[in-house]
Amino acid sequence: MSRKVSIQSLADQLGLSKYAVSRALSGKTGVSEATRARVLELARALGYRQSTPGSSAVPTGNEDQSEPPFALICMNQLNRGEPHYWQRVLSGMISACNERGWHHAIVSPSLGVADEHTPPERAIAPHLDWERCAGVIVMGAFPHAVLQRLAQTGRPIVLVDHQEPLLNCDTISHDNLEAGITVARYLMSMQCRRIGLITDDGRAASFAQRKIGIELALNHFHADSSRLTTFREWNIPYENGEWIDQLAATIKNMPHDERPDAWIGVNDDIALQWMNKLQEMGFSTPGDCLVIGIDNVHAAATSSPPLTTVNLCKEELGQRAIEALQRRIERPGTPKETVMLSTSLIPRESA
Predict the structure, then answer these.
(1) What InterPro entries does this protein map onto (predicted)?
(2) Which of 60, 172, 198, 347 sits between 20 and 30 A of 248, alpha carbons compared?
(3) Which of 2.60.40.650, 3.30.930.10, 3.20.20.80, 3.40.50.2300 would CATH assign to domain 7-174?
């Protein structure tokens, strides 16, 4: 039996006021079209109905048929406002859901100790009509305890840009190893002899995979052993902006012949911030040193100079996640799959 969904519960999940949700549902002015679309989409996914008998706050266009299924998308709260990567992956998921006539609901599960005695559906999203949940898409890294609780719902799970070998589920990600190999081999082809990597080891599995790819390229693809390329890594606290000035001070104190002649940002955001700092310090790019990133965010093409990078197909990643979920629903007994989307180099003026 479906759980009754209130306007307040919609407001709580969307982070909106009850007033804004009410006006969005009733079609009144006072809310943006983007907000109205978010409210209506969640209301459909949760099976919301007005309390007035015979009325429906969310027109479906076909009231006689049962509500369509929805994909439950688990998204880390920290990534919800990130426009360059996760929002683009999410847009691909939503598009793929729309193509199939599915709805979607987005939650940010954060389970505490007390949740182990609560049914998993209620602990994760108590207001959902779980009978219509087609499956779960997990975007990025979540603690193993959260993934275990998701598995206890009995719904198929697809992990996006994250791997959990102890969980029997499908995984969709970019070939981050290939991305690391690509940037390193490109810089080697440009005759770079001192390569510096700026990364944050503890932030994401994709960062670690890119670093491994770089090291593989440097160790196994070097054609001229008489001109070895040296490699040095700077591990930074990515979310803390102070790393830029701290690294700049380190570079200023290094002998000229030890400074990297090429820099790799483990993602474009790091590469762009560091390239701007190098220019403030009087280093020209690409005159004094090359800079390359990984991601191909929109800002990479408009920076000065435009950033050489490796393209990751973000919207396609989201599309393929929904495809994997549909396949798992249709073929539940097949072996789990790991799908890697290939990457491609985009040479620009920075390297």
Answers:
(1) HTH_LacI, LacI/GalR-like_sensor, Lambda_DNA-bd_dom_sf, Peripla_BP_I
(2) 347
(3) 3.40.50.2300
Fold of the 176-311 domain: Rossmann fold (3.40.50)
Q: Which of 190, 185, 117 is nearest to 149 (CA)?
A: 117
CA–CA separation, 251 and 159 (whole Å): 39
Contact between residue 11 and residue 17 where contact means Cβ atoms under 8 Å apart: yes
Question: CB–CB of 174/206 below 8 Å?
Answer: yes
Domains of the chain, by residue range, sit at 7-174, 176-311
